[in-house]
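Bumping with the actual sequence this time:
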Amino acid sequence: MDGKESITIRPMGIEDIDAVHTIETASFTKSSWTKEAFLREVAANKFAHYFVMEKDSEIIGYCGLWLILDQSQITTIAIREDQRGHGFGHQLLKFIKEYSAESTTTLSLEVNVDNDSAKSLYEKEGFSYGGIRKDYYGPGEDAHVMWVKLDE
């Protein structure tokens, strides 16, 4: 970030789903997130909280999470490929951690065991490894479970 752009993080609306889905499918070639799935999350899931990150009024990233009892779970998160490497992922995760800490004590996520850049980002943000979910993304595609305590 060079300090000249205007960055905003706001709740995702139905009107944002096309842009978010474009980032999702470009970021995750085997994504199971359809436009309809995003719509259900935004419009009907009382546990779901979804946000978009805008740079100069253009959506460059998003994050979804579920807040259930004392735990938060990131369901999906991505920064548009041409905007990666500028600190936006850190900024979005910091926002999500602060938002989650208002009502929960733990934040968790799953990340593909081969996604080294995402794992590095999560480690820098204080996430620890909690195990492996076998075949989480499909046959032979495992996920690391990662979590961070928010009340420390």
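The tokens above came from a reply further down the thread. The chain has one domain: 7-149.
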